[in-house]
Amino acid sequence: MTINVLIVDDHAVVRAGIRMLIESDPDLTIVGECENGQEAVDQVESIKPDVVLMDVTMPVMDGVEATRVIKSADGSPSVLALTIHEGPDYFFQMLQAGASGYVPKRAAPDDLLRAIHVVAEGNVFLEPQVAKELVSDYLVRVQQGGERESYDGLTDREQQVLTLIAEDETNQGIANDLGISVKTVERHRENIMSKLNLHSRIELVKYAIRKGLISLED
Description:
The protein is an alpha/beta fold. The chain folds into 2 domains: 3-126, Response regulator (Rossmann fold, 3-Layer(aba) Sandwich); 130-210, Winged helix-like DNA-binding domain superfamily/Winged helix DNA-binding domain (Arc Repressor Mutant, subunit A, Orthogonal Bundle). It has helices spanning 12-23, 37-47, 63-71, 88-97, 109-120, 128-143, 148-151, 156-166, 171-178, 182-195, 201-210, and strands spanning 3-8, 28-34, 51-54, 78-83, 101-104, 125-126.
């Protein structure tokens, strides 16, 4: 199945580089390019892409506001942030606006292509380092008293498994690191999500934002 991609970035040189990369993947097709968020909002309505590759800081309308507007409509495309900004503020603002993933521009080309495929399928892509920092911050805040009721339900082993999941470890990798079986890892994973009443990594992110575990303010 062909995935139609809309590129949104205010730098022509960056768009050219992204275009060359995307054209190397036979399953991806570029259906448009924009240089600001307002153009993206207008084009999404007319060309209906599957994925919008969105820069964050742009003139006229930035990527956060453009994502919020795009995701407010029914049948909206997946939005994947691609940006030089790696601080948590931009990351959480984009997620809160409705983005399905966040890829730093320093990422390897193959990671960007994989991220496009992942979000096109309705899933979430979090770069491993970003995910690791997110959950580490979550655990620190909980240990300091935030959301202690939810966190106290996790055993020490489940906390270890949660951290390794954030580091993008496979079940086999977690089993090897902790010296336990893959089936035990799977059981811990199920228990973690059940105790926190969550079903995916992105729900953990949204939960942390909603409960005020992670601030969007400086």
